TrEMBL record:
It is a multi-pass membrane protein. SMART domains: B561 (SM00665). It comes from the Eukaryota. Residues 1-25 form the signal peptide. Keywords: Electron transport, Iron, Membrane, Metal-binding, Signal, Transmembrane, Transmembrane helix, Transport. This is Cytochrome b561 and DOMON domain-containing protein. Residues 380-403 are annotated as: Disordered.
């Protein structure tokens, strides 16, 4: 049995490290990008097309955004532009930041409001203030740095980005097909989310949030409490011994393996968006990981059932176990709040929790019924010995010796 456990544990750790490495590799280009002068931004999102990335820090107190827009895969005889469209979407109305190599051979950045499809991106004031704009070009990539004073009262906007050729002094029209016609969407500077403007495709961050939510809600939020129900209520049936123990272990170790994967996705989400803090959710998550890990190791270190320390081990195991379950459920709800707007998920989860709770209440009543009945018949059989082994749970623990 111990060998089986160790194998289970070991394979879950293997899976986890694989998972961590691959998720790191995937997002490496965005959040680990090192700007010159060690500039740091709280949030980074790859834009869906045209090798572009948007990095930014949002300051709620003065409603400004410091951003860096990177556009790769171009040469220095190209222009690049990124803009917010305050009242409309896509190109017309976009308040753009533009970068190119100008006629004196220097990388030049300026602002340009787009008023119609015939624009040549002439320099002009935007509808909001841009106190700072600069650009650089390295490794076939333009980077525009700017500070925007956002229009008041909102943080979510339509955005568009683009590139095209420069011939002589003139900016040429961008390509009229492929990705150049798909380079628009939405950005929310406060919560860090990008979206497509029809809302039809889900961005990678949203997808990762959903994966994180499902992994954790299923593992910590459903499997863990179910495993506890197995342990507590199957024990009472003599026929379910030692099956309950294997069920409990299988349930908790798989919950732990999936849960740690989910926990990893959470850490990744958190580190990719340091400007957006769900501190309670994060702290409970870290606490859960520690307590969960402790539980798994406690399993390997448990004393034999008749060992004099077994009682203390039991108390400890139950205390941590129930704490984990309560914190897990709280944190799943914290997670729903962080996702905000996932009402159906929340309802579904509430349904599942109520079902598990109801089953537990029924089984609890049934267990007491059995225990009392058993006690009665025991004391009838051995009147002088009535208090011995009176509790179904400690009976179960003793019988688990063979496991
Ligand atoms: C990351 O960047 C490297 C080189 O800049 C490129 O080869 C690789 O495809 C990029 N990976 C992703 C996931 O964008
Ligand atoms: C806005 O506030 C942040 C700190 O909260 C500060 O670093 C930044 O310089 C301010 N920006 C402007 C344009 O005042
Ligand atoms: C080229 O760009 C640099 C840097 O922004 C600027 O100082 C210079 O005036 C520009 N030259 C012309 C001809 O626009």
């Amino acid at each position: 049995m111990d060998r089986l456990l160790r194998t289970l544990l070991f394979s879950s750790f293997l899976l986890l490290s694989l998972f961590a490495t691959s998720s790191y590799a995937q997002t490496q280009n965005c959040s680990s990008f090192a700007f010159r002068n060690n500039q740091l931004f709280a949030t980074c999102n790859p834009l869906p097309v045209l090798n572009s990335f948007l990095h930014w820090s949002y300051h709620p107190d003065n409603h400004t955004v410091d951003l860096a827009y990177r556009h790769g895969g171009v040469t220095d005889s190209d222009w690049v532009a990124w803009g917010l469209n305050i009242d409309g979407s896509r190109m017309v109305g976009a308040q753009c930041l533009v970068a190119l190599r100008n006629s004196s051979g220097q990388i030049h950045a300026y602002t340009s409001p787009v008023t119609d499809y015939n624009t040549r991106l002439a320099q002009g004031e935007l509808s909001f203030r841009v106190p700072r704009i600069a650009a650089e070009f390295t490794n076939n990539e333009f980077i525009i740095f700017a500070t925007l004073v956002l229009p008041s009262g909102r943080t979510s906007f339509n955005q568009a980005w683009q590139n095209g050729g420069v011939s002589g002094q003139t900016l040429q029209v961008h390509a009229q097909s492929g990705d150049n016609m798909r380079s628009f969407g939405t950005v929310d500077f406060a919560n860090g989310e990008l979206g497509s403007d029809g809302g039809s495709s889900v961005t990678s961050r949203q997808r990762r949030r959903h994966v994180h939510g499902v992994l954790n809600a299923v593992s910590w939020g459903v499997l863990m409490p179910m495993g506890a129900v197995f342990a507590r209520y199957l024990k009472v049936f003599k026929a379910a011994n030692p099956a309950w123990f294997y069920l409990h272990v299988a349930c908790q170790t798989s919950a732990y393996a999936v849960g740690v994967a989910g926990w990893g996705t959470g850490l990744k989400l958190g580190s990719d968006s340091t400007g957006i803090k769900f501190n309670t959710h994060r702290n409970i998550g870290i606490t859960l990981f520690c307590l969960g890990t402790l539980q798994v190791f406690a399993l390997l270190l448990r004393p034999k059932p008749d060992h004099k320390y077994r009682l203390y081990w039991n108390i400890y195991h139950h205390a941590i176990g129930y704490t984990v379950i309560i914190l897990s459920i709280i944190n799943v709800f914290e997670g729903f709040d962080a996702l905000n707007g996932q009402k159906n998920w929340k309802r579904a989860y509430i349904g599942v929790i109520i079902a598990i709770g109801a089953i537990a209440v029924l089984l609890e009543a049934f267990t007491w019924f059995i225990v009392i009945k058993r006690k009665k018949s025991d004391s009838n059989k051995y009147p002088q010995n009535g208090t011995n082994g009176g509790n179904a749970y400690s009976n179960g623990t003793h019988q688990q010796q063979q496991a």
